[in-house]
Amino acid sequence: MEETKNSELIQLLSEKFNGKILNVNEPYGLLTFETTKDVIIPVLTFLKEDAKTSFSFLTDITAVHYPEKKHGIAVVYHLHNLVQKIRVRVKVFIDQHEPIIPSATSLWDGANWMERETYDFFGVKFEGHPDLRRILNMDDLGVFPMLKQYPLEDPNRVDKKDEYFGR
To answer: What is the pTM assigned to this prediction?
Structure first.
């Protein structure tokens, strides 16, 4: 099988999803681009199933909170073409006040746990997910701890106070 280059991938995607492939860059050679939530499932399907792309392995789904941006949450997908040994990162920015995006569980069974974890920590609701509920935090937590409005540590913790360490 002939190796596909990043430029060829972007050309294929741009032709198929006219105007929906945005902000293309290659940090450290990792092809990264943005798309929109209305075409994320068709984009992922194309990347997985097209013979020229064959990104059959879903490495990760996560999110990043950017409270200062218009669309405050980026849902990030990492895919891997195991045959050609290439990876791609796909980002979709969604509204932090209505963090809803279609589920990728119809494409990869492994998306189930990844989407549950992303929901658990960021509050992203994956439409069509078969069992979207918390996976690591307590069910009654009431907040999504990776959103940046919450402090990194509990200010009431006494085990990290300098006075206990002679400082």
So the answer is: 0.88
